Amino acid sequence: MITQVENPILEIHDLTVSYDQNPVLWNVDLSLPAGNLVGILGPNGAGKSTLIKSIMGLIPPTSGYVKIFDKPLNDVRARISYVPQRESVDWNFPASVLDVVMMGTYGKLGLFRRPGKKEKDLAMRSLEQVGMTGFAKRQISELSGGQQQRVFIARALAQEADLYLMDEPFAGVDMATETAIFQLLKDMASAGKTVIVVHHDIHSAMNFFDWLIMLNLHLVASGPKETVMNEEMLRKTYGGKLNLLTRVTDLIRQKDFNPLKG
Ligand SMILES: Nc1ncnc2c1ncn2[C@@H]1O[C@H](COP(=O)(O)OP(=O)(O)OP(=O)(O)O)[C@@H](O)[C@H]1O
């Protein structure tokens, strides 16, 4: 079940991606409209991070192509913000929280301008949005995992991009913060940005995302949440992981659960 759209903000055509000549993503064809909060769901090893990395041009495709805003990635890089998984970053790098968030503003500054008051204000506003203002002068190495994650999201906000790609931004973040940041991302999507998030929890995915990409080495589904979140698609995505499926399909059947709301 794959919904294709006209004038997509992101178009992926026949994308196959391999590590050491072994394909881990096969023939992915999808397109996304602007102004959506998009969740990428799938079991461990499904290729979710690989998909994000290949959209960002970090892994060359074996076949196929990606177009963003109808252009190749290199023409539009400044309009894209990427939040990698927290574990993939060296957090012992000596930098303050404010420095890290200010880095988000550099792309728009150009080569020879140094960040000034405008950039600092933007960075502070971004920290405020993730509830981290009080930590601005702290070293990033001194923060908890969840706090580091929030700083990373603030850096992405300071980038003022049009397309955001976030790889498990909620790993290690507490529930209250997750809900607050989801709301923030939803507001960004309502303002016309496209936010794509690799996410593990199907329950919160049903509440928060507008559009879901369901992946298991192949693309199982891509479309508005209400059209793709059903038992058949979950079974195709998660296969025999029946405990999980039972829990989720029970949730879908619950009278008070309405996947259209939220
Ligand atoms: N650098 C790499 N070299 C070789 N194989 C890799 C590499 N990175 C990922 N893989 C393999 O590619 C497959 C897809 O990995 P990927 O990290 O994209 O999955 P994922 O859906 O993000 O998983 P998770 O939910 O566990 O983070 C896995 O089988 C993984 O072992």
From TrEMBL:
<keyword id="KW-0067">ATP-binding</keyword>
<feature type="domain" description="ABC transporter">
    <location>
        <begin position="10"/>
        <end position="242"/>
    </location>
</feature>
<dbReference type="InterPro" id="IPR003439">
    <property type="entry name" value="ABC_transporter-like_ATP-bd"/>
</dbReference>
<dbReference type="Pfam" id="PF00005">
    <property type="entry name" value="ABC_tran"/>
</dbReference>
<dbReference type="GO" id="GO:0005524">
    <property type="term" value="F:ATP binding"/>
</dbReference>
<dbReference type="InterPro" id="IPR017871">
    <property type="entry name" value="ABC_transporter-like_CS"/>
</dbReference>
<keyword id="KW-0813">Transport</keyword>
<dbReference type="InterPro" id="IPR027417">
    <property type="entry name" value="P-loop_NTPase"/>
</dbReference>
<comment type="similarity">
    <text>Belongs to the ABC transporter superfamily.</text>
</comment>
<keyword id="KW-0547">Nucleotide-binding</keyword>
<protein>
    <submittedName>
        <fullName>Metal ABC transporter ATP-binding protein</fullName>
    </submittedName>
</protein>
<dbReference type="InterPro" id="IPR050153">
    <property type="entry name" value="Metal_Ion_Import_ABC"/>
</dbReference>
<dbReference type="InterPro" id="IPR003593">
    <property type="entry name" value="AAA+_ATPase"/>
</dbReference>
